[in-house]
Amino acid sequence: MKLLNIDHVPGYEIEALGIVKGTIVLSKSFGKDFMAAMKTLVGGEIVSYTEMLNEARAIATKRMAEEAEAMGADAVVNIRYGSSSLMHSAAEIIAYGTAVKMK
Predict the structure, then answer these.
(1) Is 70 exceeded by the pLDDT of residue 101?
(2) Residue 89 CB: number of other CB atoms within 10 A?
(3) What is the dihedral of CA 30, 36, 38, 43, to 10 degrees?
(4) Helix (H) or strand (E) holding 35
(5) pTM (2 decimals)?
(6) pLDDT in tens, 32-86
(7) d(CA 42, CA 68)
(8) Which residues, listed in sequence order, are joined to residue 81 by a DSSP beta bridge?
(9) CB 25 within 8 A of CB 91
(10) Three-class HEC string of 58-98
(11) Torsion over CA of 87, 91, 92 and 95, rounded to 10 degrees?
């Protein structure tokens, strides 16, 4: 499965099969959330949140690819990511794109 954030697959004609997406909502535990709050007092990267968002993007991407495979796609083009905060220390990540068949 090719995953591309461009609107074509170089060297191939493509047939669009439809939009695919993968979503996840992740939250951190109270302990990690407390430590992150303490980090805001001194500044710097909040590593636990960075790790949480990286994990969430990976899961959302995997779910999007699985949806594309179920449609018979060879690739997903024009991939984009979105995020939102649903509540304190919980984030939604969505990965979406167009499933295509390569010719």
Answers:
(1) yes
(2) 19
(3) -170
(4) helix 30-42
(5) 0.84
(6) 666 566 656 666 777 877 888 899 999 999 999 999 999 999 999 999 999 988 7
(7) 44
(8) 95
(9) yes
(10) HHHHHHHHHHHHHCCCCEEEEEEEEEEEEECCEEEEEEEEE
(11) 160
Sheet of 90-102: strand order equals 2-3, 75-87, 90-102, 14-27
Check residue 61 and give left, alpha or beta (phi > 0: left; psi -120 to 50: alpha).
alpha
Q: How far is CA 4 from the centre of its chain?
A: 13
Give how far Cα 64 sits from Cα of 2, 27, 46, 94, 100, Å. Answer: 12, 20, 27, 9, 13
Which distant-in-sequence residues (6+ apart) come within 8 Å of 100 by Cβ?
9, 14, 15, 16, 17, 73, 74, 75, 76, 77
Give the pair of three-digit tokens for residue 43.
Answer: 């500044």
Domains and their CATH numbers in the chain? 2-102 (3.30.110.70)
Q: Is 40 helix (H, G, I), strand (E, B) or coil?
A: helix
Q: How far apart are the first and last CA of the chain?
A: 14
Identity of residue 74: D
